[in-house]
Structure formats: C-alpha cells, structure tokens
C-alpha cells in the first residue's frame, strides 16, 4: 500500500503563497478540533438549542456557538488574517493587521441535523485583504472569482477536508492521530448525472422553471428527459455537495414563494461562493439559475442567493428552463 502524504506535504508543493498556506493550515487544525467536538455530541453535553437566535433569525444550536468561537479564535490569532466574517456574527471582526487575507465561514453548516447524528460541516472562503489599511465590511464584498482558496470539512462516517487553492480540488481524510491525509488527489464532477437533490416539500412554492425541470426528472424514461432519476436530500449543503463531488448530481436550493422578497435561502459569502469555486474547479457548474455564482457582485454581508450546482449538463438544463420562462 502506497503511503499517503499529509496536508503539510501537499501544501509544500502548491504554488500558493506561504501566507495562504498558513491560513489553510490553521483552518484545517481548527476543523480537526471541531470534528472532536461534534463527535462528542451528547457525551460532552453539546447537543440541543442554545436558546438564542443569530443574525439570520435562526435558532442557534449549542454547537453553532462552540464551533464559531473555536474557528474565530483560531483565525484571529493567525498572522496573515486581517479580518473574519461568520454566518453566526452580525458584523465582521478585524484583527488590527493590514494586508493578508479575509476569511468568511459557516462554522457548522447543517446544524439542524446535529441532534439526529446526520453529517454536518464547516465551509470557508479566503479572500485578499486591502493593503495599507485595516479592512472594513465593504472589503469582504468581493465576487467569488476573487477567492484565493475555498474548502469545506464534512463530519460524517469519516471526517474529510476538501480544498481548492490555485487549481483542482483535493480531499484529505482525518486519521485517528489527527493527521489530514491526501485520499482524493483529483476530484471531478461528471457532466451528466441521473441524480438530483432538492427539498420536494417546497414544490408548490417553486417558480415554474424549477417545477418543469423536476417534473421532467420525475417523469423518468417515459418523460422528456428519457431517463430515470434518483432523488437525494440530506438538508445539509456540505453533505449534499460532497456527494455530488464524489459521484455527480445536481443540487438545487431555488427561490420560492414562501418569502418572495428573499432571492434565496443560502448565503452568498459563506456557502454559495466557496462551494461554487470548488464545483467549478472540479468541472461542474454553479449558478443562481442563470448567472454563474462566482460572477455575482455581493451587496451585503449576509446576502442570500438561489443556488443550482453540480453536473454541468444538468445545470445548463435548469438554465434553459429558466430562459423559457
């Protein structure tokens, strides 16, 4: 059996700047600690609601707060980091340093699943910080193509770290002695798929193009798509996207009529942008239904967007349905 290389060895051969590698190393170490906290669950008294809501007006779990504090503290102590923004915090936090990088993150994506022992994860994005001054909130509002790196950790049967820096997508698995070992040297998403992920309970609220697309999938071989589809839905973006990265598929979290004033559910800065970079680097596509996610210009820190990502030909099919009105 060939010996697996660790994260440090992989980063040594990557053309990213030493500062970016330092940030990634710190995030990876924090994710290893989060893995232990999540795995402790009820034994450590970490399950259940915290009794407060976050800036998104969502009930926070105890683990939302614990993981946010853990990752925030680690990044604020990391020399190349000039500022952070979290899904769980109303405003950005700066470190007093100039230049370097900004990090946005969702510390525990899918935390509503934690009490029932379903896979959850951490999503992060690394952006360049302004030179010569401390960053402000507006400095975080960069299109996704400005990201110098992005990734996620998924805490499931195995804990994995998926990462993209200068090119490609790689995956590491956390060993029993807390080492990140390279187990997926080049992850790619096939252009075609017969699997879709969406919350079907919202079907009656979708716009007509999404209904038509899903109806076409459900019609199977006898329908307009002339093939049978399977449906999967974990309700944890990390878990759903990880499945797509491993074997293909399409993930959709579209606009719906329940809250017509909100363009979508997922957060551009903490979820959509980093996942879109990973998906594109793996050969897939990621859009809001029409426009590539990475080309969207953020207007506010906690901006929400519709998300359609995964196998390229299926994402294109959704765009065709949307263009048809």
The amount of beta strand, in percent, is: 15-25%
* CATH T-level fold name of the largest domain: Fructose-1,6-Bisphosphatase, Chain A, domain 1
CATH class of the largest domain: Alpha Beta
Averaged pLDDT:
94
What is the CATH superfamily classification of the largest domain?
A: Fructose-1,6-Bisphosphatase, subunit A, domain 1
The gross shape turns out to be: globular
| N to C succession of SSEs | HHEEHEEEEEEEEEHEHEEHEEEH
* Fraction in helix: 25-40%
The stretches of 5 or more residues where confidence is low (pLDDT under 50) are none
The appropriate CATH architecture of the largest domain is 2-Layer Sandwich
Largest sheet, spatial ordering of strands: 4-3-5-6-7-8-9-10
How many strands, what sense, and barrel or not for the largest sheet?
8 strands, mixed
- Give the N-to-C terminal Cα separation: 54 Å
Number of H/I helices: 7
Kindly name the structural category.
Answer: alpha+beta
Number of strands: 17
Give the count of structural domains. 2
The whole-angstrom Rg is 19 Å
Helix and strand layout, with pairings?
Layout lengths: L6 H6 L5 H23 L8 E5 L5 E3 H15 L4 E6 L6 E2 L6 E9 L10 E9 L20 E7 L3 E6 L5 E5 L5 E5 L10 E3 L10 H11 L11 E2 L5 H11 L2 E4 L12 E2 H14 L3 E3 L16 E2 L1 E4 L1 H13 L1
Parallel strand pairs: 3-5, 11-12, 11-13
Antiparallel strand pairs: 1-2, 3-4, 5-6, 6-7, 7-8, 8-9, 9-10, 13-17, 14-16, 15-17
Description of the molecule:
- The longest helix has 23 residues, at 18-40.
- This protein is globular.
- Helices cover 29% and strands 24% of the residues.
- It folds into two domains: 7-184, Fructose-1,6-Bisphosphatase, Chain A, domain 1; 195-324, 3-Layer(aba) Sandwich (D-Maltodextrin-Binding Protein, domain 2), CATH 3.40.190.80.
- The model has no long low-confidence stretch (mean pLDDT 94).
- The chain is of the alpha+beta class.
- It has helices at residues 7-12, 18-40, 62-76, 208-218, 237-247, 268-281, 312-324, and strands spanning 49-53, 59-61, 81-86, 93-94, 101-109, 120-128, 149-155, 159-164, 170-174, 180-184, 195-197, 230-231, 250-253, 266-267, 285-287, 304-305, 307-310.
- 44% of the residues are buried.
